[in-house]
Structure formats: C-alpha cells, structure tokens
Amino acid sequence: MEKKKIYLWEPWFFIFFGIFHLHRIWGLADRNSYAEFWLGILENKGAIYFILMGVLASLCILGIVTFIKNRNNNSWWRWIYIFGGTYVIFDLFAIAVELKFWNNLLMMMFDVNSPYWNIIWSFFILLGGFVFMLGIVLFRQRKQNV
C-alpha cells in the first residue's frame, strides 16, 4: 500500500487550529474577559483582526487547494480542509461584511449570561483538542516517512 504524502505544513495547520480552539479554555475560566477581548477584536477591526483573518483564510485556502490537488489520493483528515475550511472562510466573510444574522449569532455566542455558554465553548475546546492531537500524529507520521 502506497503511503500518502504529508506536506511539511500540514501538521502545523492542525496544531495551529488546535491551539486556536484550545485557547477558549480561557472562556470557561473567565467569561467576561474572554467575551470582552473577542468582541473588542471584532468591533474595532484593528491589526490583530486583519492579521488573524489573513492567517486563518490563507491556511484554509491552502488546505482546500491541497485537497483538490490530491483529490485522487487524499487521506480522511484532508476532508477537514473542505468542511472546516469552507466554514471558516464563510465565518470570516460573514464577519467582514457584517452579515446581520451572523452578527446576531456571534452576539448570542458571546453572551456571558447564556445557559449554553459552557456547551458552546466546550465544543470548540474538544474540537481544538482533536485537531491539535491530529497535528501531532501527522507530525510523527511525516517524520517517520521522510
């Protein structure tokens, strides 16, 4: 059976997104400062906002292109590029153009009094843990295959 190539950047893609989602532990520890920080980023649209949007969008586009380029020889985890990448690009677009329904959804997500706060952010933390560990596994597999 032929081993599928893991590009140098792919483990780091998942490690980055894993850390990005795992930082939401902060939201479970201190709802107010977490919501205040991210709502400030979204409302002010300063340098951090544009750098983060650029990095996230670039990584997602790179993942989608990689999936398409390897369409006949993809591993299961590359489907994350399609589904996760499409979601993130839509999210970034909706935030950038200030789609009303998306803004309303974000305001509900960052409502520190919501009874769903822990469920919402715990989901993202679990997702982050999964993709972080996937990045570590891919890093090890790539190292063994080189």
Features:
mainly alpha, 146 residues, globular
Largest sheet: none
Q: Please work out how many helical segments DSSP would assign.
A: 7
Strand coverage percent: under 5%
State mean pLDDT (0 to 100 scale): 94
How big is the Rg? 17 Å
Instruction: Determine the N-to-C terminus distance.
Output: 17 Å
Number of β-strand runs: 0
Q: In one word, what is the shape?
A: globular
Which blocks of ≥5 consecutive residues have pLDDT under 50?
none
Q: What structural class is derived from the secondary structure elements? A: mainly alpha
Give the fraction of residues assigned to helices: over 70%
Order of helices and strands: HHHHHHH
What does this protein look like?
This protein is mainly α and about 150 residues long. Helix content is about 75%, strand content about 0%. It has helices at about 10-20, 25-30, 30-45, 45-70, 80-95, 100-110, 115-145. Helix 1 runs antiparallel to helix 7. The protein is globular, with a radius of gyration of 17 Å.
Write the layout of secondary structure elements.
Blueprint: H1 9-22, H2 25-29, H3 31-44, H4 47-69, H5 79-96, H6 100-109, H7 117-145
Helix pairs in contact: 1-7, 4-5
At a glance:
By secondary structure, the chain is mostly helical.
